[in-house]
Amino acid sequence: IFVEQPYFNEPCFEVEEGTERGRRASRDYNGAVRAKTVELAMLGQYKRATGRAGGMGAGKSAAAPDEATRADIHARATAELKRQNTGIAVAEKFEIDDIIDPADTRHFLSQTLKAMPTPLARSHRKHAIDAW
Q1: d(CA 75, CA 82)
Q2: Alpha-carbon span 91 to 114, nearest angstrom
Q3: Which of 31, 86, 96, 117 would staple 91 via disulfide (CB 3.0–4.6 Å)?
Q4: Which helix (H) or strand (E) holds 28?
């Protein structure tokens, strides 16, 4: 989640690394991405899971009078999270048009890969981009 320079992980922006333009763009981009990551990916998930924005472990189950009630609250909250985070539900949240079962695509994928030409032998070493 917290890559040191997320701007340079975006497609085509790695070529700007080490340039003045890249430093300015990275500075502007990185702050916004980090703020949204915390807000949406971390706090948003926590609020949905607990129904509130408080300390970890705090929430409805912490105030339950006994272990059986706590276990019931936990089981219902877990079931609701599972319901909200199915493949279909997540696709709807992120406006993904379709979800394809991998079993339905194996044949086509394997035929496509078989049809691909053999890549040319490399004359130089491949450069790795370390995203972490």
Answers
A1: 11
A2: 30
A3: 96
A4: helix 20-36
What one-letter code names the amino acid at 18? G
Q: For residue 35, what is the DSSP state? A: H
DSSP state of 43: I
Place of tokens 């339905």: 104
pLDDT confidence of residue 1: 52
Q: Around 121, how many Cα atoms within 13 Å sit in the side-chain half-sphere?
A: 1
| Rounded-to-5 percentages of helix, strand, coil across the chain | 60, 0, 40
| pLDDT confidence tier of residue 29, bands split at 50, 70 and 90 | confident
Using a cut of 0.90, tell me whether the model's pTM lies above it.
Answer: no
CB-count exposure of residue 8 (10 Å: 0-12, 13-18, 19+): buried
